[in-house]
């Protein structure tokens, strides 16, 4: 007898629900109305990103999906405003806890981690707004991800508005990646791969980042030495693994969309992290 094929949406909901139950308290407050649990609402929020739908359309999609409601143990469908309020309550600490829970399944430490940044655009401004402002409305949110080249999972993240130099994120990302990188005799043994945008004085001999040539020249001896290391890494095929970070960016934008729907700056900075979480669960 052939086994029934599981829908990818049901599979995603099941995996996301298990992660949320292990990371998020059942209720936000002892006197909660208890109509929905927080893990249920977190998965509804993740589904909205996974399906690239607004909260209103996510509500309609859940109404039509009996199997997903059964997986989430939903006796009723939450209103779109309830899902939106859940996102407002989802702090950075909770997002980090969800990421840690997803990454707990990693069996081996990473030998190399690729770091790169990408941009997410906002939904188009209305014709009324652009007419009143007299200018084209252009803005974006930068998402920076550290991707393990072995697992191709996002190990660390950061985000910011507008033009923030990539070097600003280097130290925080390295601290978060360290727990998933290979160690040897208690010392770091993993390589960081990044483009020249991350070139700064904080780099070590385990960071393969091409130095920026000032006036077409490299003067400092340590910068010349790093340029030689990167050149050798290119010949050995190590530095070419950096493209996996760009592949992850492409997958996120093609499958889950490159649009930021939130209106407040605080929530806009969290959406690239939410997309990264959805990518890891989908993977």
Keywords:
283 residues; alpha/beta; two-stranded antiparallel ribbon; 12 helices; globular
Strand-helix topology:
Layout (H helix, E strand, L loop, with lengths): L7 H16 L14 H13 L4 H10 L1 H6 L8 H10 L2 H12 L8 E11 L4 H7 L6 E9 L5 E8 L8 H8 L5 E2 L2 E2 L2 E3 L13 E2 L12 H16 L6 H14 L2 E2 L4 H4 L2 H12 L1
Helix pairs in contact: 1-2, 1-6, 2-3, 2-5, 2-12, 3-5, 6-12, 10-12
- The average pLDDT is 88
Estimate percent helicity.
Answer: 40-55%
Alpha carbon gap, first and last residue = 29 Å
Share of β-strand residues: 5-15%
Q: What's the total number of strands?
A: 8
Description:
This protein is of the alpha/beta class and about 280 residues long. It has two domains: about 10-90, no CATH class; about 110-280, no CATH class. The protein has helices at about 10-25, 40-50, 55-65, 65-70, 80-90, 90-105, 125-135, 170-175, 220-235, 245-255, 265-270, 270-280, and strands at about 110-120, 140-150, 155-160, 185, 185-190, 190-195, 205-210, 260. The strands form two sheets. Strands 1, 2, 3, 6, 7 and 8 form a six-stranded mixed sheet that branches.
């Amino acid at each position: 007898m052939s086994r029934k094929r599981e829908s990818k949406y049901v599979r995603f909901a099941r995996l996301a629900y298990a992660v949320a139950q292990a990371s998020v308290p059942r209720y936000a407050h002892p006197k909660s109305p208890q109509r929905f649990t927080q893990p249920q609402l977190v998965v509804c929020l993740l589904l909205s990103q996974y399906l690239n739908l607004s909260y209103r359309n996510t509500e309609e999609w859940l109404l039509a999906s009996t199997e997903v409601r059964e997986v989430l143990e939903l006796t009723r469908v939450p209103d779109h405003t309830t899902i939106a309020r859940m996102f407002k309550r989802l702090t950075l600490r909770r997002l980090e806890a969800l990421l840690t829970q997803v990454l707990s399944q990693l069996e081996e430490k990473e030998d190399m981690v690729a770091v790169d940044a990408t941009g997410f655009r906002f939904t188009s401004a209305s014709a009324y707004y652009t007419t009143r402002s007299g200018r084209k409305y252009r803005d974006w949110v930068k998402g920076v991800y550290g991707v393990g080249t072995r697992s191709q999972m996002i190990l660390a993240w950061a985000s910011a508005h507008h033009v923030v130099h990539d070097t600003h994120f280097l130290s925080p990302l390295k601290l978060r990646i360290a727990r998933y990188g290979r160690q040897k005799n208690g010392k770091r043994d993993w390589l960081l791969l990044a483009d020249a945008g991350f070139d700064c004085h904080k780099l070590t001999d385990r960071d393969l980042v091409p130095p920026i040539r000032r006036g077409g020249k490299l003067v400092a001896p340590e910068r010349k030495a790093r340029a030689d290391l990167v050149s050798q890494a290119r010949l050995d095929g190590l530095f070419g693994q950096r493209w996996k970070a760009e592949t992850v960016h492409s997958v996120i934008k093609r499958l889950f969309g490159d649009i930021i729907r939130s209106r407040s700056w605080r929530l806009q900075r969290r959406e690239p992290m939410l997309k990264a979480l959805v990518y890891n669960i989908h993977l």
